[in-house]
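Holo model, DAU. Inputs:
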Amino acid sequence: MRTTLVTGSAGFIGSNFVRMLRGRNEPVRVICLDKLTYCGNLANVADIVDKDRVVFVRGDICDAALVAELWKQYDIREVVHFAAESHVDRSILDSGPFVQTNIVGTQVLLDTARKLGCDRYLQVSTDEVYGSLPEHDKSAMFTEETPLAPNSPYSASKTAADCMVRAYFHTFGLPVLTTRCSNNYGPYHFPEKMIPLFVTNLMEGKKVPLYGDGMNIRDWLYVVDHCDAIWTVLNKGKPGEVYNIGGNNEMTNREVTEIVLREMGKPWDQWVQYVKDRPGHDRRYAIDASKIRRELGWEPKYRFDTAIRQTIQWYKDNETWWRAIKSGEYLTYYEKQYVSR
Ligand code: NAD
Ligand code: DAU
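Output:
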């Protein structure tokens, strides 16, 4: 059986990925490595950790000695690298942890892979490395050839990591793959990101804070579709290649907010609060995912209208999960981000 190191597996997408592998009974042993930062949560994977197929290790990807030890102990030959500082607003408040985890952490993994051997290394990247698209020219989309032009400290750190991945392919022949995906939504999404923040605020009787004019555009993809695309690239992708992943589902933030409000039976006027815009806020993201469809046969299976309903229902069914998060450190962040600005 293959042994795959999955970093960031206690976060939103990483935990959904490991859950998907277990649910499908894929023939793989997973070593989960996660630092359990403020957004890492053991509860996201506790029910799927077992001695044989899913091993959980708490640790930092920047710790080269630990990474090498795990590599040797479990005979790791494959990596899916999710671990990151992932929230744009936090990168504006303090970019330090983004440089450390997203750039240095990636370099540590790449170097260990190079020194100790690796058959496949998959870098989970983001469409944000391409910067922002014009909102009125709907024919403009991000392709894998679009020049990298990151605009936030978060996306700058992800871009630097992507460049290291590319360099390890060209310089050392490391068999790397890079995926760049659009905005995800679904279960276990940390409630600082727009959709889970809005859903849980409404459940708490709080207004939803819409940035600027609410007309920024994102391309939303259900998290299980993203996980399936990553598994497809890991198994069928060509080393050295980049694959864009998207839902072909562009919406303004106002449209997403309207859908969430409608599903939760809340009128716009009473529940939406326009707040100061995010500095450097990218206007539009749109992914051209024709390469992964054409070359690897992947396409999204979930429709936004049904998957968003299931997602809202998940937050209704899992109040204990998000209420535990929305306390402590979270309140300090919320105050800094939304109240004292
Ligand atoms: P997340 O913030 O929910 O989870 C990140 C996980 O990484 C957490 O469990 C955290 O504890 C762990 N982590 C952070 N620093 C670490 C370190 N130094 N060592 C070990 N573990 C560490 O993030 P997410 O939304 O699940 O995103 C996962 C990846 O997917 C990221 O690389 C992100 O850039 C990328 N991505 C996210 C989206 C999205 O919409 N959420 C879209 C495209 C790409
Ligand atoms: O595109 C992929 C990226 O999507 C990932 O790389 C990031 O890790 C992930 O966090 C996400 O980034 P965004 O910045 O697009 O996601 P966020 O949920 O923070 O914001 C989505 C949109 O909603 C964005 O235009 C900003 C807006 N927004 C966000 C928050 C948190 C608001 O209007 N109000 C808010 O309170």
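The first strand starts at residue 2 and ends at 7. The pocket of DAU (ligand 2) is lined by residues 86-88, 126-128, 182-183, 193-194, 197, 209-211, 216, 218, 253, 278, 285 (CB under 6 Å).
Archived with the compound record.
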